[in-house]
């Protein structure tokens, strides 16, 4: 089967699985138009939402039979269009700890000005130029309390933080066993938060949820962290709040357009600590993604597809 692996930025796909018996091409750079690279591909392996697969793309790939995505959810794949074009879509497992760990890397980086002090250290700048923010005693607000939100909450509790959570259907019975308080509303949550962290799934209900009015509830000393999906936050409103320093800063791993254009203003703001969507980019996750992608391909060839979306 002719397979193409898209967006293998770090060149790790072949080293993390046994692709024997498959005709595989790996594309390391992001392609604005992937069609020429996929013209004769029967199978395509995609990494998260790096390359969207809308209906218009399926229509241009008549040889495509199988699309494999890392993880069991990919909002950038038009599943009805895949079915209409006779394309089977399969997923893989995904580790839950990497995005939790990156959330805390961003929280700690913001609280202790790690990027600023590191840059000064290497540039021969001032020795100690910032004053850190204490986590112990601070309030951690969690938008979402599923597996990831719960894991983040437990670490916050270990730091001695007061943890409060909210989501549209969250109940007291769900948070109380974790020693977490339940906020009455999104605005209530943000108004209490010294650090607010997003752990919601992007959907029609959550898209744009954190709008200008919600951001206005944050204190000037508060930080917003988003390792979930950019679309949950009104990007223009966030940019304005950061530019005008109406919040202390933001830790961001997700963006409306990825890779983020070099001209984007977010790249210029000193109160933004950002990483290029690496929340899932770890050795364990890559081993899971690519090994199970190969399993998906072989199962499809055998006529018994597994992990179908």
Question: Can I get a quick summary?
Answer:
This protein has 2 domains: 2-95 and 282-301, NAD(P)-binding Rossmann-like Domain (Rossmann fold); 97-274, NAD(P)-binding Rossmann-like Domain (Rossmann fold, 3-Layer(aba) Sandwich). The protein is built from 11 helices and 12 strands. The chain has helices spanning 35-38, 55-58, 79-84, 97-111, 114-123, 147-158, 172-175, 186-192, 212-215, 235-243, 283-301; strands at residues 2-5, 23-26, 43-46, 66-69, 88-90, 139-143, 162-166, 181-182, 195-198, 223-226, 249-252, 272-274.
Structure description:
- This protein has 309 residues and is α/β, with parallel strands linked by helices.
- The chain has two domains: 2-95 and 282-301, Rossmann fold (3-Layer(aba) Sandwich), CATH 3.40.50; 97-274, NAD(P)-binding Rossmann-like Domain (Rossmann fold, 3-Layer(aba) Sandwich).
- It has helices at residues 35-38, 55-58, 79-84, 97-111, 114-123, 147-158, 172-175, 186-192, 212-215, 235-243, 283-301, and strands at residues 2-5, 23-26, 43-46, 66-69, 88-90, 139-143, 162-166, 181-182, 195-198, 223-226, 249-252, 272-274.
- Strands 8-7-6-9-10-11-12 form a seven-stranded parallel sheet, with helices on both faces. Strands 2-1-3-4-5 form a five-stranded parallel sheet.
- The protein is globular and about 55 Å long.
- The model has no long low-confidence stretch (mean pLDDT 97).
